[in-house]
# Entry
Amino acid sequence: MGEKTMAGPVTHEFWSSRFAFLMAAVGSSVGLGNLWRFSAEAGTNGGGAFVVVYVGCILLIGLPILMSEFIIGRASNAASAVNSVTDLAERSGVSRGWGSLAWVGMIASFLIVAFYCVVAAWVLSYIPKFLFGSFAGQEPEVISAQFGEMANNSGGVMWWFTGFVILTAWLVSRGVHKGIEWAAKFLMPIFFILLFSLAAYGLFSSFGVEVTTEKGEVSNAGYQAMAFLFAPDFSKINMEVIRSALGQAFFSIGIGSAIMITYGSYLSQSVNIPKSATIIVLTDTGVALMAGIAIFPIVFAHGLAVNSGAGLFFETLPIALVSNPGGQFVGAAFFLLAIFAAVTSSISLLEPSVAYVMEKTGVSRKQVTWALGLVLWAVGAGVVHNTLEADSYMNFLDGITSTWMLPLSGMLVVLFVGWRMNKALVDEQMHGTSPWAKALLLFLVRFVAPIAVGTILVFGTWEKYLKPLFA
# Structure
């Protein structure tokens, strides 16, 4: 354990160990994005076609951006993402304006945690629904309707939302070791045990079920689910699928949001950044796929729609589970799994803003965290009261952050590290990496990631917003 001295009078902690760092970073990456959002996006965007593009985005774009963010954080003399980039820009002899990339990411992370806490509130409210039999014996239409009734009951949701915001703020206020590390080291092992158990349950419970396919053929439900996820129909890949996969990759890993720059600033020099970044992206991807294996076989076994979007987790899954033996307990375990993932991600989303205000003002962590927690509650309250409409506040925040702000910030990160940051500083942070691996990663940082993100942003904007104007 140690402290990193910065340009001012403020100091901050290191991670206590490499394991603690990996658990915190994996906990940040593995969240509702891997469970609720991944299943919704994969179901809506063609299953295997989406998965192929998503994995490509993770490896060719997500990995180099994550590594670059860790490099920025550890190489700087600052704790917050904004000051880290500004510090390195000055030391590299380039414009301080590069700090704007961290501003975009930090603002995005704060907006995301505002609606993230609302989704977490929904998850919390479903645990007692399963445990106390609210879905037992109900018709599918009634179970499905309970989600809308719950989400539109803003007074009821506010209690769960307020409780989750308080939990998030309390953990962040405890600091790196007693808050963020403790939560990750305690919750993530339980999360993985639950995830593997539920994936095994979903897969094996479906292999004995025969279903009729769209072509009128009788087939095994488990086989159909695996084919949906892992046998891509490449004809389904279009710009919307690519744009959705890119947004999911950024949302899932937590890149472009200033989180990993902040976490990188707590990182000791003994940790190999490329190796750690690889472990994190592979784990995050594995969790998303495992969540798909847990959810889609159950959905196929009951002949339910896979393309129901966000409703897949809150409407379709409960309908499927309640008809299974012990379904109410399996359902409670599913949503408990989701809340564990939500906690580790929500604290990471709040941390960049807390680190910046602490460093800027010199005010204590506890005071800053609770003040920002109050702002977070106020922003999120607006989401609670306007959630399910197509033009809802939540859809607006989700769209502007995952589709535009996170990719823009991520593209600026790799442009900065690849082309503007002092090369000696970059090389210093990649110690312990073989020459061929370093050359490959830097090629991805300098060329592949920025060109890919830039191209997807341009064509995605054209397809979704500009092309219809000329139709």
In short: The chain has one domain: 3-470. Residues 108 and 401 are 6 Å apart (CA to CA). Strands lie at 3-5, 11-13, 210-212, 218-220.
